Amino acid sequence: MSSVLRLTRQGATRYPTVARRSPVSQAHLLRSLSTTAPANEPPKTPLYINGEFIQSRTKDWIEVHNPATQEVVALVPQATPDELQEASRSAAHAFKTWRKTSVLSRQRMMFDYQALIRDHMDELARSIVTEQGKTFVDAKGDVLRGLQVVEAATSIPDLTMGQRLEVAKDMDTYSIREPLGVVAGICPFNFPAMIPLWMFPLAIACGNTTLIKPSERDPGATMILARLAAEAGIPAGVLNVVHGSVNTVNFLCDDPAVRAISFVGSDHAGKYIYDRGSANGKRVQANLGAKNHGVIMPDADRNHTLNQLAGAAFGAAGQRCMALSTAVFVGDSREWQTDLVERARALKVGQGFDADTDVGPVISPQALERIHGLIQSGVDEGAELLLDGRQVSIQGYERGNFLGPTILTKVRPEMRCYQEEIFGPVLVCLEVKTLDEALELINANRYGNGTAIFTRSGATARKFQQEVDAGQVGINVPIPVPLPMFSFTGSRGSFLGDLNFYGRSGVSFYTNIKTITSLWRAEDADHTTASVNMPTMH
Ligand code: NAD
């Protein structure tokens, strides 16, 4: 028998009022579900299926480690095939009623949901620091950037409004946006709250039901978000959380009930999911890896530029898909690199709950080892190590996956440290003579996620914005992640699919357009003669 915590009990069609429940802490929730583990053992993360937090019957558990200590803080199940089927059936069943919910009810729930997330910001951030390692302030930013998508989803009546035109006398053509059905989301480890929130709130607001798979490395924030969704009155089956790794992903790619897949993560997994999901006839949007270049023009504001560059390269330990991991110094600005080293050296490395910490640990010992290898490859291939963070050790946290800010200069495009995404607090610096050379370099890179230019010249900025091939462009803004009234875009190797995440494009991804042409001629009420001619709409 599975152990079940029943949080949602209202019928699927009754949700005009929101029953607020008393908050349950995540640790308490997880412990209350853990039937096999004694109190001193790590809690087992439940599945969330049909409004119930269910302990998996699997024998295959994945450990979640605190990256600052290696302590096992939770266990995540590889959900069994039966459990995955149950989640899919729950979503398919809930869709029958959820799709008929009035748009105002869905809007109302998004209002309640955003308020609950705001109220539980600290709890969410604590879970993120514990499982992912980023600093507490940065973890709150992670929640906030996701919360903004929920806030934008409160505009769902406007966002899904159709079009209508009288195309001939008494004949109307109108288009309406309809939900797809069951949609799935597959998330990476680096934004445990923001990225699930890029996916399911908008999908649900559009009238879909969802199967969300958080990263098996930090599922805690998604579980809190699921609990808050239940508190906001989102009915049973509309949001389901399934866990696991490749087996769960394969299920989501193959399940005939799943109509669309949103994926954010690495190239390898993303291409695989895009190919497998598309081959099964599903709509897929996949945000992949990145190598974001920051171009430093000699006329830029030196102080502003160097501060922005250091923050954007080393913040979140470089584990942001929009981290500025590559600096391109144009002309005389190459001399600023010494100052950059001083700023980077001043950043404090430590565990995320320490209020002074600027740079937390990377996600795993394997990630740390890979990053060390890439730094060494740069040195071996002739780059110069201006700042080496590899020897850093944090008192009391000696087992943590820490790496201090590291700067490699004199990097050339053929080097491995330039070719591969490093995803750690490592900045590679290249030098070019002109803006045209910088553009050529960036546009030849296989990724096209984000980029930024630092300059005091509007003309230079305009030329850069026009000629650079990247999804997000910052002008004196280092991490130009668009607010959710826009969409998060991507070019070349950083994105697969046609419709981007959130904003109007996100709404298009989660809906189908149906176009109806109707003729209601008053005089026909008395006429019974059929016309065999092709309607010409005149
Ligand atoms: P990842 O690809 O390892 O994992 C992402 C998801 O895919 C997880 O849920 C995981 O279970 C699943 N997965 C992993 N390997 C798989 C496989 N072989 N087959 C099927 N499924 C698999 O990514 P990650 O390490 O968690 O996240 C970091 C990556 O995500 C970086 O490359 C980063 O650039 C990228 N990212 C991109 C964006 C963006 O918007 N472009 C945003 C955030 C992160």
UniProtKB/TrEMBL annotation:
Any GO molecular function: methylmalonate-semialdehyde dehydrogenase (acylating, NAD) activity
Broad class of enzyme this protein falls into: oxidoreductase
Name listed for the protein in its UniProt record: methylmalonate-semialdehyde dehydrogenase (CoA acylating)
E.C. numbers: 1.2.1.27
Occurrences of domain Aldehyde dehydrogenase (ranges): 54-516
InterPro entries: Ald_DH/histidinol_DH (IPR016161), Ald_DH_C (IPR016163), Ald_DH_CS_CYS (IPR016160), Ald_DH_N (IPR016162), Aldehyde_DH_dom (IPR015590), MeMal-semiAld_DH (IPR010061)
Domain of life: Eukaryota
Residue ranges the record marks as coiled coil: none
GO cellular component: mitochondrion
UniProt keyword terms in alphabetical order: NAD, Oxidoreductase
Gene Ontology terms describing biological process: L-valine catabolic process; thymine catabolic process
SUPFAM superfamilies: ALDH-like
Record family assignment: Belongs to the aldehyde dehydrogenase family.
